Amino acid sequence: MKNKIKYLIYAITCITSLICFSWAWAGNQHHMVYFEGTNHELHVFKIHGKKPGKTLMLIGGIQGDEPGGFLSADQYVDMSLYKGNLIVVPRANFYSILLGRRTVNVDMNRKFAGGGKRTYEAKIVEILKKLIDEADLLLNLHDGSGFFSEKWENNIRNPMRYGQSIIADCDTYINPNTGKKLELGKIARQIVIEINRYIANERHYFHFNNHRTHSKDSRHKEQRKSATYYSLYRRGIPAFGIESSKSLPLELKVFHHNLAINAFMKYLDIIPETPAVRIDPPKLKHLVISVNNAMPFVVEDGQTLHVSKGDKIMITHVESNYDRGIVADVIGYGTVNDVRKQIQINRKTKINVRKDHYQCGSVNIALGKQQRVDHGTVAHAQNRRHSDLLFFWVKINGISGYYNNYERIPIVKGDTIELVEIISSNYNSNDLTVNFKGFVPNPKNNSGEDRGFVIRTDCDLQQKFSLNKEGRIYHAVSSIDNQKIGELFFELVDPLLSYVVFKVNKNDKRCVSPGETIYAPENAFFELIDCKTNIQKNKGVQIFINGENSPRLLVRPYTTIDWNALTKYARHKKKQRYRLDIERESLLLGTIYIEIDPLRVDHSTISVIESSQGPVYQ
Question: Is residue 5 in some structural domain?
């Protein structure tokens, strides 16, 4: 039986636990996920600039009925920075966002004082507190009621309203431990001037709103349990609440939040690429669903999936015009987010897909009467819109991806490729042959069928079979009875090291290019933070350090270099020179040098000297 309209687009296998902490050491962004697979899944993004600088933290969606804040924060996740750093938590309270409510159990922005039941809100706040410690300034993004005004005008515009204001817990704060003076009012007024330059309607201007939270006569004592109060009074870190008005259209709220964030970034000398305002209506394209753990297939928006009573389905991927804030809810089963959960179907139902709180599509689940077919071919598309679909299921470095016929895939030399399967609407995959030109798994028996083999692109490919015999573009061909029906191209590029980021003296971050030398005093503090390459998630990349007669040690991310383990083998104790080799498998990507000079007694004298291969970062 020919397959019905079935094709694979994208599927990722993930590890799920109560608290799932994962991070991608890839380029200048770290993406961490907590509580993965739960309704309150928390995503944290750390973005590092090429040059060291201040760190700004953004919290959006701490209260779920304020979309201006979390949609604005979400636009900064993909930002590249030239200087400085961002910590972005776009949806701090994802569960309340999905429900479109301010709270679920308790108000998350009232949990920073501690105490009470250990709800999911309290667990998330514990993580937010640790992130605040890494920041130089905190912005908590909100949508507030009405319009703040120092004088009473009417019920919508008065001193008790929050909208269109920058809130601080005091005008001036002096840290009792350090004596450091923070002039929050001065900062906020400076930011207000910057923001209002871009707002055409004077009635929408921002104003500084001093809550005087710590004062005995404050009207806002409840804010003593908030994120900004914790940041300022417990950690000595300046913090502001940014309040756009709930009375404004959504796109305007997001725009005003962006203005505030950009102004604070300018104040901190964080140099960004400003994101555009993107509020396109969310739209579901299709769901990737497996039935009874068989090969998954796609059901498009508005189509119907027929299963038998008792079948177990799993939604492995949601394809829409947005990447974040997307959930799929099997109505009457599971929870509000049923992605990657196995659900037994006993009655007809529907899968509703939402971005945040907005409905963007659905798929029907019906109980079919037709006989069960092997290989999971139990899907029936009521709305057949494609007559000849063909897709390649490929694993790159073990990660599944699903590619259109004739698509070109960029590959870094050293990546691994596995042709898993070919999916066609007109042919049974068992009747097809998939041949990767230039790869021979068994020279004694070259059948031309290359599905299921892991291909190492640094040693398994024969250049003479590449296009133009240049060793750059290879192709996989799918055929039936020697007639080509599909083709996929792989374009190889050399692995490239751009720079390595170190934390020095426990505060400053230094960006060092290949070939450069770092000069530092004895016992200097060095911690590896990041390694920027063109390799997906830095797969296989390792950094080793060694010096004169010293062992070759592996340097892991976020670990301090152990100088004692290195220097005890050195014959010359006065001045030592070490090399850091950045490698992938046996391939050297680049080398950075560290020279320890005992005469440099001041740690502030750490410097990077320019080489012929890269710039200087002082």
Answer: no
